[in-house]
Amino acid sequence: MIGKDILGLRDLDAADIHRILDTATRFRAVSERAIKKVPTLRGRTVVTAFFENSTRTRLSFDLAAKRLSADVLGFSASTSSTRKGETLMDTARNLDALKPDAVIIRHGAAGAPHMLARAFPWSVINAGDGINEHPTQGLLDLLTMRDHLGDLRGRRVAIVGDVFHSRVARSDIFGLTKLGARVLVAGPGTMCPPELAELGVELRHTIDEVIEDVDVVMMLRIQRERLGRAMMASSREYARFYGLDLDRLRRARPDVLVMHPGPINRGVELAPEVADGERSVILEQVTNGLAVRMALLYLLLGRGAGEGGDA
Hints:
The chain is α/β, with parallel strands linked by helices and 311 residues long. It contains 10 helices and 9 strands. The strands form 2 sheets. It has a 5-stranded parallel beta sheet, with helices on one face.
């Protein structure tokens, strides 16, 4: 049962996930209309509060709310009173005084959205918290895979790179395992610690161990802002042992899906010709991100309308 908030895929069961993906599929039609707007959330107020940088997630949440006719307030930590020392809870109390219906938050501290969800009556959507989870990215990844593969039960998905620091990887792992997929993770030992096996995945340590027999390869961004110097010698060395180039792609299944949550470090995680090649569904992920975020806002705030809203 989908409750007041969307904090992580760890909290959702398979039925919840399928309901969100089915709703997102219906909302995709809105973006194909001449007038790309429905009145579903007219009179509702959505706040986007980003304490870390974002392009795809922030823009698609902003557009999702506007396409549903909600009023949107954008909040950026770099231009707010947090630069003057205001705490997260004091910021949230001031937002609460404006009577929002939902707050979408990205924060560098794991658990920040959970804290707000416990303290305030409005809906909270986690847009990424520390190295914990990024549930909407996980959902759009699942939708993209389901579009191409259908039922994900028994499908093999490789997640390659800095899994340890990736909130995307954690959400993908939770979602994929709940939908019955087999997940393999591969990366340097410093980026794929043994405790990841407790999440129900199979651990490998080179891309060559997983590339030949998977339906999907999800390449992760090297998070230089979170890495210590000892974790990666150089970008060139990383690309040599863990990057996906055309030579490695030729060893994969001819119908393998190549995915990446963005932003891409071209020439490091992905060779440009792979990122832009025919097996890449990276831009489909972006399109699906808008539909997923529209679906979540509808499910949390627009459930007074009929199922599917005005889509």
